[in-house]
């Protein structure tokens, strides 16, 4: 069982990382930095930019902080997956999404000095982001749902029938 959990963590994180990097390399081969290509005019564009800050472009030009924090996140998530912490398959899936996304953005920072962003939903969202960011957000959200669900179940078990 433990081997399967470790394998799932590695496989999912590797797929997220590889897909993120492949898409960015594909876009770099076809677009210039700063170029935008409308997919659905005034709603969704591919816009190739570099973000030297963190989420939403905050705190620009502090690359070493993001390198260290990305490595720390990946190490903590790896410890959670491989350590003695009991996690469900959904929690493993969630943290592997976050780890793969963090590794993708870390690779960008190491290669380019900034994260490469390209998904531009200008019709509904003012920020440009990438696939790694989506994996980080989805994984974090899924982990939170799992945590709340488990807390609810544990509370229900302690109460007997789930009611006070």
Walkthrough of the structure:
Strand 1 and strand 2 (44-51) form a beta hairpin. The chain has helices at residues 2-30, 63-82, 89-112, 131-159, and strands spanning 36-40, 44-51, 115-120, 128-129. It has 164 residues and is an alpha+beta fold. The two termini are 36 Å apart. The longest helix has 29 residues, at 2-30. The chain has one domain. The chain is 62% helix and 13% strand.
- Overall radius of gyration: 18 Å
DSSP strand (E) fraction? 5-15%
Mean pLDDT across the residues is 86
Neighbour order of strands in the largest sheet = 1-2-3-4
Q: How many discrete structural domains?
A: 1
Cα separation of the termini: 36 Å
3D shape: globular
Beta strands, count: 4
* H and E string: HEEHHEEH
Please summarize the sheet with the most strands.
4 strands, antiparallel
Count helical runs. 4
Coarse structural class: alpha+beta
Spans of at least 5 consecutive residues with low confidence? none
Helix content: 55-70%
Brief overview:
The protein is 62% helix and 13% strand. By secondary structure, the protein is of the alpha+beta class. A 4-stranded antiparallel sheet has the order 1-2-3-4.
Break the fold down into its secondary structure elements and pairings.
Elements: H1 2-30, E1 36-40, E2 44-51, H2 63-82, H3 89-112, E3 115-120, E4 128-129, H4 131-159
Helix pairs in contact: 1-3, 2-3, 3-4
């Amino acid at each position: 069982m433990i081997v399967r959990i470790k394998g799932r963590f590695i496989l999912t994180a590797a797929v997220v990382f590889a897909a993120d990097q492949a898409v960015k390399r594909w876009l770099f081969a076809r677009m210039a930095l700063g170029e935008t290509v409308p997919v659905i005019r005034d709603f969704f564009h591919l816009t190739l930019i570099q973000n030297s800050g963190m989420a939403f472009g905050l705190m620009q030009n502090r690359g070493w902080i993001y390198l260290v924090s990305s490595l720390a996140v990946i190490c903590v998530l790896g410890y959670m997956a491989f350590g003695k912490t009991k996690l469900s398959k959904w929690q493993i899936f969630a943290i592997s999404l976050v780890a793969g996304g963090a590794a993708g953005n870390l690779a960008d920072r190491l290669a380019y000095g900034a994260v490469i962003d390209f998904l531009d939903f200008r019709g509904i969202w003012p920020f440009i982001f990438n696939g790694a960011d989506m994996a980080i957000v989805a994984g974090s959200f899924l982990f939170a749902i799992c945590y709340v669900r488990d807390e609810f179940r544990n509370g229900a078990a302690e109460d007997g029938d789930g009611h006070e």
